[in-house]
Amino acid sequence: MWLKPEEILLKNAFKLWVTEKDNEYFVLQRRRGYGEGGGGLTGLLVGTLDTVLDSTSKVAPFRILHHTPDSQVYWSIACGMSQKEIVQHWDWLQQNIMRTLSVFDSSEDITSFVQGKIRGLIAEEGKTSLVLEEDPEKFREALLRFEKWFELPQEEKLVTYYSCSYWKGKVPCQGWLYLSTNFLCFYSYLLGSEIKLVISWDEVWRLEKTSNVLLTESIHVLAHGEDHYFSMLLHLNETFVIMEQLADYSIKRLFDKEAFQREPALSDPLQITKRGLEAHAKSDQFRTFFRLPKEENLLEVHESFLWVPFSHYNTLGKICLSENYLCFASQDGSQCHVIIPMREVVNVEKPDSSSRALTVCVRGKRALRFSEVRDYQRLANTIRSRCGISASPQHSASTEDNPEDVTLMVGQKDSSKAVSTEALMTVFHPQDVENLDPKMLKEKMKEQSWNIHFSEYGRGTSMFFTRKTRDLIVRGVPEALRGELWMLFSGAVNDMATHPGYYTELVEQSLGTSTLATDEIERDLHRSLPEHPAFQSDTGISALRRVLTAYAYRNPKIGYCQAMNILTSVLLLYAKEEEAFWLLVAVCERMLPDYFNRRIIGALVDQAVFEDLIRENLPQLVEHMTDLSFFSSVSLSWFLTLFISVLPIESAVNVVDCFFYDGIKAILQLGLAVLDYNMEALISCHDDAEAVTILNKFFDSVTNKDSPLPPTVQQASVGNNDKTSHPKVDISELIREAYEKYGNIRSEEVESSRKRNKLYVIQTLEDTTKQNVIRVVSQEVRFTAAQLDELYNLFKRQHFRCCYWTMKSPALLHHDPSLAYLEQYQLGFQQFSVLFSLLEPWAFCSTKSPLSLWIFRLIDENQDGLVNFKEFCCALGEFARSLLFTCCLYIPAFDLPVDGVIRKSPERGRGKVDLQAYLKQWQNEILKKEETIKDLPRIDQTQFIQFSKTLYNIFHGDPEEESLYRAVAHVTSLLLRMEEVGRRLQEPRSPPESTKPASTADSPAAAAAEEEEEDESSPKEAPTTPESSTTTGSHDSQDAGPDLTETEWSFSFEQVLASLLNEPSLVSFFERPVDVHAKLGQAKVAQLKLKANK
């Protein structure tokens, strides 16, 4: 590798380097401790220095220096990990540089020319290199070490590296931590003690920052049931964030494929960089905080002050700019933030240079003034240009006074198919303006409070979000404003404004479609809030059907999941139909990620977060109930339906209000408040059933005393007629208590806990899947449970290997999460042949061998080009044991048709034979010691030649290779003689004078037999012997008589098997026991070192 020329002093390095070659201008040196004569104490010390120190001159064992005769200064210009590599550089210098240097007169010109040439070479390498980091020189040096120490495939992309300590017990080992796309690696070499650690990200169960008595802070990694701790003086937080990103990326790409979103920064595993991961993490935080669409990316961040008119002062914060949004969040604790869509910006006034300020004017005659912006002029120009791009017809729907009227509804001809333009609550429970009962008066007071808030803080998309906004949410949202505020807080208003007419098109396209999702939707329509009048009519049912069907059509990966109907029903009560659709999009794709899929991973992750919060905030409950899994089972419906399924509808909508403002944090807080409220009763419980009863009674007692809904709309509590019912609990008081006691839970902590627990949840699901697969497969094969466990890990890792370095592998492209767990991980032929070559019991092993192809085609029952774990184990269990494998060798000699069934030979003519069924039956017959064997097709001369070659290949490299070759020669010779005898018996009787020609015709086969025996002394040429003999015999047989055909030149299975059984060396070879445990261990070590197959 060419290096940026760097001046060095040989005097200080005299004891570390040995000169191998030199000339007038260049010196090639080898590092002491490497190569010949490099052992002893010198090698130990040098190896330790190479590990601990970070210097170009102390990394590679070979280097080339440039110098001039009249100078004592040397320049390092190249290094190499091997002698072959450095010699190539040396030869290049001799051929391309040495002749040119004689032209120069001065040493300065020579040195300048050499340095320029080397920099040019490095620049050319940089154009094609994927390594683009902040310090290319040091990174290239680290890349060399990474490749040398861990011997991973060249396709593996090193993302970054750090100096750190790895703790083995109480002893720290200083070394280097390397983070690549698919692996976490650590290397340490201190005074002869080498530590090498390689962990793939898909094997990590836990990744968290911890502290203990010895370490103030460290990174804890749990993998393979072992705990690993890494500590460092610098960059610990940065390291942890990168590790978290890589682990999450690996989990999404390899396990949670149905939720994986291809993003530009992460679409290609070979292009992952530290900078790209950091940018992706910041954009993700930016979108989550401001509830923006997934298409938005954080482009610029500017520190500034924002004039807050309602407080009459400037608040310090940051301007965050994306493609279509200008956002601001304060940093001084006032919890103030604002979101300005570019489509709402009407003008950017000329910047004020004195205060470095710019004013952004938005619709509704409002303006926001940002001051003390360092790069204010460029920011103003950027906003202007983006507003010009955004000012398209699709953004003209916004109005100045009523932002909620952005909705675009298009009626259709058939009234049953019309898109509803009103919220169902407005239709089925219109407000009576003249009604002045206390509840309605309180409702009017709430509306007045919100109107005052709108006048001060703005209304619509550019409204200020402050503490006061949250206080109003906790008190309760007025019925008339609920739909508008849900749209605003969730960010759905932006989705709908930028996609006019989208929902109507989806409804038209999805009408009449019939899928599994639509069938499930029809089944659940009348189970959605059946007690509410809106869903006792065709109006509500039709609207619910359209929204759910349109979303299933939009997102077939999710389609329809239970609980979506309950949530959508509530959304339709307070939002117009199109608004309800976009609210459902916001919930399923942003606010509750991975909730509504087949494995409800998101809900399981949040339940794990909930358990962590219980341990932290309710220690008394934890002491009494050591197993918190009970809370996971009982709280699943809380998370999936946002408490709608357990609370009366008039109370549940208040919870939904908080959810749209604070996200999952609001649900977690309320869950803790519920448990806290029932603490004493839960502690006194004797079993889980009693605890469930207590919680159910509590939820039945929750009321909303301020709800203006009539009794026909409100849900009746189950315990209303029970004299011993739970005392009534007002939902507003419960929510207020939740915010007072647990409002200190930060959204950032929740997101961090989500990432940490997601690893554990998915690995737990994977482990359950593995146990189920092993339980099924163990009934079909003779491997032990421990061996099947190791085999499954190897099989799964091989499956991942085809996904590590590409997004276009068959395993990813054809992944179907609806398949049974047994089918989730499959191998194509290329990956199968690689893994089979690692596990097969013979010395011969070539991934290109036709043997692998034959076995693959034989066990691929559905002929889809993929085999699952069960099929793979059957291949090892049946074919790698005793003489049963000879059947596999015999059968593949035929060309397998597409349907996987081999037809019998014409002379037998009794239908067709299913090979897999035959193998299983024959195996059973052998176990029962039965002698009956079914007839199989006969093999002709070409197939016989291939059969013989396969036998020779299998024995290659075996200690008994010579005797096995002789045995094969005997078998083939015997078979040829038997065939000749059979052919003569089938020939018609001839006069005595024809006997002599017949014996002449017999001579080729006899010659073939003799030639087989002669070739015993040279077994490696034996494979060609059957070919020549059988070809000659076939040719002469055609000349002997017109009635002889190629099909008559064949062998039966009984003949092949009998001939093999006559050779003790062959029998002992196939009956030789295999050390499965050792074979699995060898395969595990060798698997990662194999070249990646794309």
Automatic annotation (TrEMBL):
GO terms for molecular function: calcium ion binding; GTPase activator activity. Residues 982-1047 are annotated as: Disordered. Coiled coil: none annotated. Keywords: Calcium, Cytoplasm, GTPase activation, Metal-binding, Repeat. GO terms for biological process: glomerular filtration. Transmembrane segments: none annotated. Residues 995-1008, 1020-1034 have a biased composition (Low complexity). The keyword Repeat applies. It is found in: Cytoplasm, Cytosol. Residues 847-882 form the EF-hand domain. PANTHER family: PROTEIN VASCULAR ASSOCIATED DEATH 1, CHLOROPLASTIC, TBC1 DOMAIN FAMILY MEMBER 8B. This is TBC1 domain family member 8B. The gene is TBC1D8B.
